[in-house]
Amino acid sequence: MKPEDFADNDPYLIIAADSHAGLPTNDYRPYLEKKYHEQLDGFLIEQQELIEASTRLGVRDDKYAKKWFEEHDEELAGGWDAIKRDQTLDSDGVAGEVVYPDSDAVESRTAVPFGAGLGLSGDLDPELGLAGAKAHNRWLADLCSTNPERRCGVALVPITGPVEDALAEIKWAKEHGLGAVMIPARWCNQIPYHDRRYDPIWALCEEYEMPIVTHSGSAPREEYGDLLGI
């Protein structure tokens, strides 16, 4: 068919294939195992130190950042508030969405604990990476349960760690309504993905009909050193 064959009022379906959602980092605490709460405190301190360092370097304008967040406070809340999120989707005419982590890409105020969100990478500590991923997945399942037909939640699964842990988390994600699996975009010095050790993971995702995805966000820290990187 040609464009002129469609009437102006013909309906069409819009699905956001790359939307993002996430809690302010400290609000993940109830979803994080208690034994990791002290490490979360340290991670929050590190995040603040990064913000302060970027301000000193002139990369970040503190006054502008404060003004921007004040002006966009209501919109940013849609990153974790299901009601406000649906209102925004309705106003934009979006029927459904595929939901990735980290809703604030400006200062990472909604970063998944321990960098297990868009920064999910093979160089993360396997234990902390899984802990942060599990916290996000449990919150995300709650968010998606408010409107399951509209949201496809993407579970975070750091598969470069123990395979049995990855399998257990994929199983949990499937049982709790999440629809896809995000793996680290980079395996770094871990075993590459063509290795047969990952076969049980691929097989389980195929059995569950859960697409495997990656997302830009991690970068080779050893290559850019002190320079700015993603």
Description:
The protein has 8 helices and 5 strands; from the N terminus they run βααααβαβαβαβα. With 230 residues, the protein is of the alpha/beta class. The protein has one domain: TIM Barrel. The chain starts with 14 loop residues before the first strand and ends in a 6-residue tail after the last helix.
Number of helices: 8
CATH architecture, please? Alpha-Beta Barrel
Query: CATH H level: which superfamily?
Result: Metal-dependent hydrolases
Strand content: 5-15%
N-to-C series of helices and strands? EHHHHEHEHEHEH
Q: What is the terminal-to-terminal distance?
A: 42 Å
Strand order of the largest sheet: 1-2-3-4-5
Outline, from the CA principal axes? globular
Write the layout of secondary structure elements.
Blueprint: E1 15-20, H1 37-56, H2 62-71, H3 73-76, H4 82-92, E2 96-100, H5 126-145, E3 151-156, H6 163-175, E4 180-182, H7 199-208, E5 212-213, H8 221-224
Helix pairs in contact: 5-6, 6-7
Note the main attributes of this structure.
230 residues, alpha/beta, TIM Barrel, 5-stranded parallel beta sheet, 5 strands
In short:
By secondary structure, the chain is an alpha/beta fold. The protein has helices spanning 37-56, 62-71, 73-76, 82-92, 126-145, 163-175, 199-208, 221-224; strands spanning 15-20, 96-100, 151-156, 180-182, 212-213. The protein has one domain (14-224): TIM Barrel.
